[in-house]
Give the backbone structure.
Amino acid sequence: MTSSAYPLPALAAVDIDPALSPITLDDADLFAAAFSSLTEPISDTSFAASVCWSEPLHLVRAVLDGYLCVFSAADGDLSMMLPPLPVDPAQTGRLSDALSACFSIMNAANAGVLGVERSRIEYVPAECLGPILNATGLRLNAEPMPGDYVYDRAELVALAGGDLKNKRKLRSRFLRENTDITMGPITPACVPACISLLASWRRAADVKHEGEANEMLLGVDVLRERDERCTRRYLELIEPLGLKSMALFVGGTLVGFTIGEQLSETMGVVSVEKTAPGVNGAPQFIYSAFCESAFENATEINAGDDWGIATLRYTKESYRPTRMLGKSVITRAAASDQQTPDRSVIRTLTHRRRNSRLVEAESVTRARVRLATLADTAAIVDIEAVAFDNAGDAFNQSQIRRLISNPRARVGLAVVDGAPAGWCVNLIRSHLRSRSGRVYSVAVKPEFAGQGLGRQLLNWSLAALEAEGVRRVYLEVRAANIAALGLYQSAGFTPIRTLRDYYGTGFDGIRMRRIAESNGAPT
């Protein structure tokens, strides 16, 4: 193999330790030795994934106390993208030393940026969790992160069963509407067409998913931009890395391509799958065809994780995974207050009186909305307990504390005659060239329903976001919730997209957007 690397990240916010080096193609044997220590690799423990994500995630590596350590400086801080893995699986006795060295490097880089609490180890496979948490001399905490979706290969090839009926119909439609279909490995000659399709895919997705962010409040446009850069790298390295690939043509025009590799003796991983916008059935056809031809000896297919994106989670779950491969984030401080609860939809104004109308009448003039503090946690728990019919919809104490502590959340508490009556949560998301806001939750006690308190909380939310220069604010609402739609429209929100089955099969959502008049502040 020839050496190929991107330069070390030049980020003013993070000082990269001189012990860290770029990942090159010459590191293949080093990574293979480290990954051989794993009984069941995950999609991230692949040399191809490491080298192809190297540039968009600013990956660097080092061997510390006999362990391969991979770091990322993509988000203005320094974190680890994999746990320390032994270069010689027979020598595993210095894990504590390696972990201490890793946290020392991260803490030194993060201390002057966002604080050492940003130091973390992500993408930790389940089998590594116990040894790391039990490492002597360290106080470590683990939190789950999105895991890998694993499917039965035979079921993906056949798209068999009632659950996949719609997938079969779409594949059949593609075959019915397109007669001149050809498939084959991606060749250097068709790479330019792949890159052109990739750009079209990104443009269409930017429009379709405007305003969306993942659970860490990172705009999906940022993730998509990184994905595009990574995919270009995969296209460059298909032959050097010995990857499997497929290009799909209709009438000589490229309509899709996919790239993957054999992750283990029994599992294949689909690393890249892109199809031209508007070609019905192409994703279902190429996915099943690629799994059939590229992974003849595999029994399972790994489709990676969902990046904490609600819409991607829905798509991956719709293929009915047979199991999940767990991953965790490890921190040295108390469990991170930077994370948000695992929620994908806004909870609109609802309460236990099922037949009452959500109509905003005269305002509760004696209500005051203020910024919530951790001391308000118990009061907010009480509001949640009475505001929702389904206990599963209510935030718990830990989630509420995280939201109040989250620097990207603005939590308001409404007080009437000295007693808590309702609360709201707003999130600030980072995008490629701007920030946006999201009205994440509004909840009021039943006795204050219909008195304008919900509107007052909504107005406070919008004012809080505008005060920080955030002009574009989004929310999602059930399409059937006419009263909530009317409330949001009266506050300046306009529908921008229908979200099919967003709240479950047969329950559509509507994404709404409000753009405040520019006041010269940054957006």
User: Anything to note?
Assistant: The domain at 21-138 is CATH 3.40.630.30 (Aminopeptidase).
